[in-house]
Specification:
The structure holds three protein chains of three kinds. Chain A is built from 17 helices and 20 strands. Chain A is an alpha+beta fold. Chain A has four domains: 104 residues, Sulfite Reductase Hemoprotein, domain 2 (Alpha-Beta Complex), CATH 3.90.480.20; 150 residues, Sulfite Reductase Hemoprotein, domain 1, CATH 3.30.413.10; 83 residues, no CATH class; 134 residues, Sulfite Reductase Hemoprotein, domain 1, CATH 3.30.413. A five-stranded antiparallel beta sheet of chain A has the order 1-2-5-4-13. In chain A, a hairpin with a 4-residue loop joins strand 1 and strand 2. Chain A is globular and about 60 Å long. Chain A starts with 5 loop residues before the first helix and ends with a helix. The mean pLDDT of chain A is 97. Chain B is an alpha/beta fold. Chain B has a single domain, classed as 3-Layer(aba) Sandwich (Rossmann fold), CATH 3.40.50. In chain B, strands 1-2-3-4-5 form a five-stranded parallel beta sheet. The longest helix of chain B has 11 residues. Chain B is globular and about 45 Å long. Chain C is an alpha+beta fold. Helices cover 23% and strands 28% of the residues of chain C. Chain C has a five-stranded antiparallel beta sheet with strand order 3-2-1-4-5. The longest helix of chain C has 10 residues. Chain C is globular. The chains are: A alpha+beta, B alpha/beta, C alpha+beta.
Chain lengths: 542, 151, 98
């Protein structure tokens, strides 16, 4: 994992003091809320339904046990004993006091954490593959590049007042676990025909009210020119992205309106200029960062045999444990989606337990996933049973990774000032309804957003749900056929919306349709793509 | 970057970071500038292309870039583009310029400021001296940490 | 009736105008009639409230009930965490919100 040096620490410490002063100026009346709002947002502090909400960055979803324990400590001392892991691999606290926020940031800074640029019209936290450095299918670890991007984007002088927020994801594998095509910029490390590794660059994806799957604007970007190319991509956007309409200000609209080829041409033209300015960090800097992400000292000669005699353990093993690149190791995904629970929420005690397990069994590493789960990336197969037992004792052993119970849901109207409908109660009902049948249904990604902003990724769900406000009453639209993976696609609305119970019934009818039509090995999404919307619509509204 | 003058604390904030005499000629619009050969000061609105000035930077002494709203960040790119092309005259940020934005604007090459609202001298001085390290190479003289790390 | 609500500037708590000051409890909220705008301006300038706004509500047996579900959730707390309710003992809370 990356370790701060004196410069990184100085920057984060300075930010804490800057924010402390900004809060002081606000509480003293020296600045108005209008002036303070963009300043607090740049530090991830929102005013939500019940209180201030603080979003803490977890850069590329990677953290160690000490950092994880700090997240538990913040939950206990400054919040109500829990936190919410988000689809951006961050954590949010729902009950923050403005006058305590600087102290929280100061505590976070002691473990190399911060809330910098977790909101605002700037480059947000860089996201990545939660299996980075562990995945069997990886070309190269994307995290050194993500860290390079983190540093480059932090207080970038030119790109802090962009037309709109800007999200970048980096992956290094063919399988897309980070939804790169649904980001403003998605970067995929891959090998070209000459055997060199470089980036495929996707620009202009996103969800929200105008969902778009990003086109490729450059198939192979040499590593050496990485930052100058990013600089060119952002400069074209900063200059020409729309500022007349907040709903049309994301880069996806610019790329869509002028076309991917024209956007790419403008970037190349800008890049030809920018490349001459010496903005790229030298190779030595990349090497310095990459050294922190060198593969840990995996033990050799470990057995691959796992005792499956406990049937409950075997179910979890088959569902929540993935292949690791090192023999004798496995990747564990801890589901934060217990049946009837709140997706992505974890108590301070649970966070502490996950930290303990990471320290003891996973080489002191944890990852947060965009599906709001937690990963122990480096677990010896021989330790899996002990890990499972500890998780099970704390309500963290839901064996439902990628099943219908593994629901992505935004906080919705229970917490969020922008929401039109509640997301969490619906997630709870759905996970209860399908608790017994979810394993038979196989991979089925269900995603719920409580408003058009799509924080719950409803466009990208095999089944998606969008909560809307219909004359003051919560109403839910159903979508089918979305995907955030390498086969990215956008879901289509089935038809008229439903009330809360109605949408659960409608999902059951859609799922029954899948069961009656599926062929051997077909996922829900595959069947939908083969047969189309008609039979599902017929079953749902029939 | 010009050194923030700490002696200004408590007095009028220092908003011009140049040692030459202020340029007195009023800034003309971009259209008007491009239509005459003798103007030496121009005002660039936020939707105007800074590159239109590049053929003429040798005779420019002042470019005033408009920031109609603090959220409108196009001027940051305009400033850098002018500096990258070798413009050395005064580069002024005018409009809805907030004290917390001035350090970023300095990094983009601005060296004078005409904010619509008054700026508190002490707050500005603190803002300018707060960050001792920066991550990027930009249009100012500051060396990014990657340069410091690798000598 | 019209209620004035907002969040406490320093703590972020949801607060309701109770006639002579702010209350955490909507049961203590009073009808502000046509004075919402004036009150909001005064209270915001005094930094006793952040983001004040007026809402429609009806007077019920247990006090005012906001017309919109969003403000009922603000008044009661998240519907999915009964333990964090403003008044945890209130058995009819779910019904009141929905």
């Amino acid at each position: 994992m990356y370790k701060y040096d004196e410069y990184d620490q100085a920057i984060v410490d300075a930010r804490v003091e800057e924010f402390r002063d900004q809060v002081r100026r606000r509480l003293a009346g020296e600045i108005s809320e209008d002036q303070f709002k963009p300043l607090r947002l740049m530090n991830g502090l929102y005013l939500q339904l019940h209180a201030y909400m603080l979003r803490v960055a977890i850069p590329y979803g990677t953290l160690n046990a000490t950092q994880m324990r700090m997240l538990a400590h913040v939950a206990r001392k400054y919040d109500k004993g829990y936190g919410h892991f988000t689809t951006r691999q961050n954590i949010q606290y729902n009950w923050i006091k403005l006058d305590e926020a600087p102290d929280i940031l100061a505590e976070l800074a002691t473990v190399e954490m911060h809330a910098i640029q977790t909101s605002g019209n700037c480059i947000r936290n860089i996201s990545s593959d939660q299996f980075a450095g562990a995945a069997a299918d990886e070309v190269e670890d994307p995290r050194p590049w993500a860290e390079l991007l983190r540093q480059w984007s932090t207080f970038h002088p030119e790109f802090t007042y962009l037309p709109r927020k800007f999200k970048i994801a980096v992956i290094g594998a063919e399988e897309d676990r980070a939804a790169v095509k649904l980001h403003d910029i998605g970067l995929q490390l891959h090998r070209n025909d000459a055997g060199e590794v470089g980036f495929r660059v996707f620009v202009g994806g996103g969800m929200g009210r105008t969902p778009m799957v990003a086109p490729v604007i450059r198939d192979f970007l040499p590593k050496a020119d990485f930052l100058s190319y990013m600089e060119a991509c952002l400069r074209v956007y900063n200059r020409y992205g729309r500022r007349d309409n907040i709903y049309k200000a994301r880069i996806k609209i610019l790329v869509h309106e002028i076309g991917a080829a024209e956007y790419a041409r403008q970037v190349e033209e800008e890049w030809a200029h920018v490349k001459t300015l010496g903005l790229d960090a030298p190779a030595a800097e990349f090497e310095r960062i990459a050294a922190f992400f060198a593969p840990p000292a995996f033990e050799t000669g470990l057995s691959d045999t796992i005792d499956r005699s406990d049937p409950d353990f075997a179910v979890w093993l088959d569902q929540n444990v993935s292949a690791h690149k090192a023999p004798g190791y496995a990747v564990v995904t801890i589901s934060l989606k217990p049946t009837g629970g709140i997706p992505g929420d974890a108590t301070a005690d649970q966070i502490d337990l996950m930290a303990d397990l990471a320290e003891r069994y996973s080489l002191d590493e944890l990852r947060i996933t965009h599906a709001q789960n937690v990963v122990l990336p480096h677990v010896r197969k021989a330790d899996l049973y002990a890990v499972w037992q500890a998780l099970d004792a704390s309500g963290l052993a839901a064996p439902n990774l990628d099943l219908i119970g593994d629901i992505i849901a935004c906080p919705g109207l229970d917490y969020c000032a922008l929401a039109n409908a509640r997301s969490i109660p619906l997630a709870q009902k759905i996970s209860q309804r399908f608790a017994a049948t979810q394993h038979d249904l196989g991979e089925l990604k269900l995603k719920i957003s409580g408003c058009i902003n799509a924080c719950g990724h409803h466009h990208a769900g095999h089944i998606g749900i969008l909560g809307v406000d219909r004359k003051g009453v919560e109403n839910y639209q159903l979508l089918l056929g979305g995907s955030a993976a390498e086969d990215a696609s956008l879901g289509r609305i089935t038809g008229p919306g439903f009330d809360e119970d109605g949408v659960v019934d409608a999902i059951e009818r859609a799922v029954d349709t899948y069961r009656s039509l599926r062929t051997e090995g077909e996922r829900f999404l595959d069947t939908y793509r083969r047969v189309g919307m008609a039979p599902f619509k017929e079953a749902i509204y029939g | 970057m010009a050194d923030p003058d700490q002696s200004d604390i408590g007095g009028e904030p220092k908003l011009r970071f140049r040692n030459d005499e202020p340029h007195e000629e009023p800034a003309v619009t971009l259209d008007s500038f491009l239509g005459q050969s003798n103007a030496t000061a121009v005002r660039l609105e936020s939707d105007e292309d800074a590159r239109a000035l590049l053929p003429h930077i040798d005779r420019l002494a002042l470019v005033e870039v408009a920031f109609p709203k603090f959220r409108d960040g196009r001027g940051y790119s305009a400033g850098r583009i002018l500096r990258e092309a070798g413009y050395t005259g005064e580069l002024r940020a005018q409009g809805d310029v907030l004290v917390d934005q001035i350090p970023l604007m300095l990094r983009c090459g601005f060296d004078s400021f005409a904010p619509e609202a008054s700026v508190d001298a002490k707050t500005l001085a603190e803002a300018l001296s707060r960050y001792t390290a920066v991550y990027q190479k930009a249009a100012d003289a500051r060396r990014p940490v990657w340069a410091l790390r690798h000598g | 009736m019209k209620l004035l609500t907002g969040n406490d500037l320093a703590t972020g708590d949801v607060i309701w105008w109770a006639g002579d000051g702010w209350s955490r409890h909507i049961a203590e909220a009073v009808d502000v009639g046509p004075h919402a705008e004036t009150l909001a301006a005064v209270e915001e300038a005094a930094r006793r409230v952040n983001g004040p706004y007026a809402i429609d509500a009806t007077q019920g047996p247990e006090g005012p009930r906001p017309a919109h579900i969003k403000d009922r959730i603000r008044a009661a707390g998240p519907t999915v965490r009964a333990d964090l309710a403003i008044r945890p003992a209130d058995a009819n809370r779910g019904e009141w919100v929905i």
